[in-house]
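User: Please predict the structure of the protein below. I'd like the answer in structure-token form so I can feed it into my own downstream comparison script.

Assistant: Understood. Taking the following sequence of 338 residues as input:
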Amino acid sequence: MLDRHSSTAHAAYHDLLRSLLDEQVSNIRGTPTRVVRGGKSYWYDSYRIGSDVRKIYIGEETPALLERLDRLSALRQETDERRKHRSRLVRILRAEGFQNVDAATGSLLSALGGAGVFRLGGTVVGTHAFRLYEGTLGVRYQFDDMAQTGDIDIASFEKLSLALDDIVNPPLPEVLSGFSFAPVPSIDGNKVWRWRQTRNDLLVEFLTPSFSENEGIRPLAALGVDAQSLHHLNYLIADPIKAVVTYRSGVVVQIPRPERFAIHKLIVADRRRQSTDALKSEKDRLQAMFLINVLAEDRPDDLADAYADARAAGPQWRARIDATLERLPDVKTVLEGL
């Protein structure tokens, strides 16, 4: 039986997320401007500095963003009230037993968000994303080995990063060095996609989907860094969602959709099982099993669609999924019954 957060906690979490998204739009300095690229609409904050016109990316057009832009004047006037409201909501979540990130991780994610990483397409993946489904799905985690992590993995699409025509500010090497991170040299010349914290060995890694046989190092223009390209990652980070890190009064990040995360873990678990990452493969299976059981009860249609999409991606995808499901017969039964 699932251990769920109370309806009060679930409502407080989503109210906190709405307030933080309102706050992002209220910070627009100039005139919201719509730009169409490749059949999609993107919004920018356009304003003058002297004789120069600056354009800061706001986000891809959605009904929710348009509704917030329509309320821009009111949102600007409600800043103090929202700040106090968010403080109350975070206190409610803590009282309800919501798990907080440690101060070091929270402050780093806040700084990355402030630089524009998540606004410009960066998506938190890995176990840090898994932890954040506690709020998205309203379920209480028993924080054992499947939810313990230190490393922070951030993924983005190379083409999206190039198309946005904006860049993080301040530069990420500057942000990371402020937290005592140093670049980890790679075998691919001067391209750096990993930073290691000198005082406790924490890693920040940047990733991007690979659409070729080679999993090489690729640039992420908007983030100003290089990234390790990986197969199957395009499936994971398609159509991501917003989530809240309950650090201080809340930090908005971007994470994969939970149903895609769950099915992707089935794929990655087999890939790691065939290497030396046996412990990580076990964690992948535990995370997939937990989320699939939750989603089969709460969002079966979403889970069924994500499962069908992955199986339709090709025989190698199906082979990896099936290999993991052979080790998880109960999960296999759940998915086949959708």
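That's the full token string. DSSP finds 14 helices and twelve strands in the chain.
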